[in-house]
Amino acid sequence: MVESQSNQPTLVQHQVVDTRAAYLAATAALAAGNGPVGVDAERASGFTYSQRAYLIQIYRRGAGTFLFDPPPIGDFSELNDALTDVEWILHAASQDLACLREVGLDPVRIFDTELAARLLGIPRVGLGTVVENLLGIHLAKEHSAANWSTRPLPESWLVYAALDVELLPDLRDRMVDLLVESNKTDIADQEFAATLAKEAKAARVDPWRRLSGLHSLRSQRNLAVARELWLARDAFARDVDVSPGRLVPDASLLAAARVIPATRQALSDLREFNGRASRNELDRWWDAIQRGRTSTDLPPLKASNDTLPPPRAWADRNPEADVRYKAARAALQTVTDELEIPLENLLTPDYLRRVAWTPPEPLDAASVAQVLTHLGARRWQVDVTAQLIADAFVEIPQVVDATSDLGS
Prior knowledge:
Blueprint: E1 2-3, E2 9-10, E3 14-17, H1 20-32, E4 34-42, E5 55-61, E6 64-68, H2 70-73, H3 77-82, E7 88-90, H4 93-102, E8 110-112, H5 113-119, H6 127-135, H7 155-166, H8 168-181, H9 185-197, H10 220-240, H11 244-247, H12 250-259, H13 264-269, H14 282-294, H15 314-317, H16 319-339, H17 343-346, H18 349-357, H19 365-375, H20 379-407
Parallel strand pairs: 3-6, 4-7, 7-8
Antiparallel strand pairs: 1-2, 4-5, 5-6
């Protein structure tokens, strides 16, 4: 990638790959290239039900840029085998790994430029901003929210997609130097390995409870109707591969669940029940309401889970935990400033909340370290934070006692 005089990137020629023969030729070319590969994937989030990749972009020096159309290609195992020993460069890898693995692309070693930017203390970590900050190149992001399931893809979209990967090797090289200078190479390696090893989230027990505004429903019967409407919409959305909210929005399902129309016509007349599939699939929604009206499996008003209350409620719910959390957070903030690493990257916020809510016994650095490791903290995070957290917890009673003595 060469920067032009107008501070715009000069595009390396790219090839669209949408047949098996072209795919095998591209695989051979990439295998013969040199250095790491820049990889990106484009989904159609917000447009389709699935999170599959509708375009996969790969660039390697000495090989060029290839834009793969996954549906007609199918399995990418040959390409994965050809790049097994190669470092893959991705920006925000956690967002793309699932859809890459779905087609057989599963890297062994990665460099995540978004994560590296966080570790380097860069305040804004979007790819365009980081590229402009470190390479001095303006990268337009006008098609980031496009519907990538569109066929044929417009040429301007393909150019945009190619630029996303062609800059990644240069960006990675610059970041490697900065990580060495800031003594954060080992930290980055641990973070990249953790990203690769992270397991996919388990499916929610009651995914219908994600319905926006569900908390406003006050009876189990209303909840049962909401559940059946959500399940009906989800099944239909999966069948037609359309984002559920584009069929009938959450607010419409909630309005119907709140009113529970007595007849099919009453549902049709409900002004708040709208959306592109609200009337032409009216039988589907009416059947769901009927199932909810007659169900004997009434859901509890509140879901049972191990989610902690939000920290803003701790002062009332668990005052001691609130004091511990605030003290530890303040202690960690000093390290954040020193290392120039955001607090959420220094230690996953949920880990700090859990150890503050239920502190280990005995209350020392070793016990805190054990809990953090069990939760999933990386070795460098434990080394940096465990002692500080333990000290903050231990010092709290002394501060309280001293305050009490002054007031007596």
